[in-house]
Amino acid sequence: MNGIDLDKSEILRYLGHKNQAVSGDIMETIDACADDILRTARYRYIYKIFDVKIGFRNGESCIELSGTNISLLGNDIYEHLRDCKKCAIMAATLGIEADNMIRVAQNTDMLRAVVLDACAADFIEKVCDLAEREIKQKAEEEGFGTNFRFSPGYGDLPLETQRDLLNLLDAGRKIGLTLTDSSLMIPGKSVTAIIGFTKNYSAPVKKSGCDICSMRDICKFRKAGSTCGRN
Questions:
Q1: Is 230 domain-assigned?
Q2: CA-to-CA distance for 116 and 30, rounded, in angstroms?
Q3: What is the reported pTM?
């Protein structure tokens, strides 16, 4: 429908499944919700590639995006990009249509709402994977490797950085992605991220860890002894 297939095992994981038996009714609900979200959501993504350099602000090292007035602050994003020549800034969204479908279900059928939300969570990750594959291909064409997606709110990179990134991408006009005053994205099923272009093409890709995630203290996956899949 959208060129993307959802993963039932991932949807079940988002629902808190722990290898217990799943009823036929639940599987039918997952199938129906997956079809509905794939048919209704209007996913879009955008990215731009920038040269990066080490800068200093208030006596501390930071990452500067060449050609802009943006500095990425925090030790974690500094470590993420310190050995990179370039980075890609990306944003992805499922569109307001997905939000509206979940919101309607919350008022009429809570089980459907929960399953739709899990389907949308897997969907937006798949969209990010699609954007990342394009970015990786562009990096390879220039002889670079890539590292993992690092989003505002991870570690000590301020969540407010999202506003700078979306403005840089003109994401409001181009893909309909905006922010509230508290830096929450609208539509809700959206992601911003930074991917570094590593100098060593064959360098192993290091994944992000729970220890730098801003959600680590309240993460339902960690409480269940699992991860969200980004580790």
A1: no
A2: 8
A3: 0.85
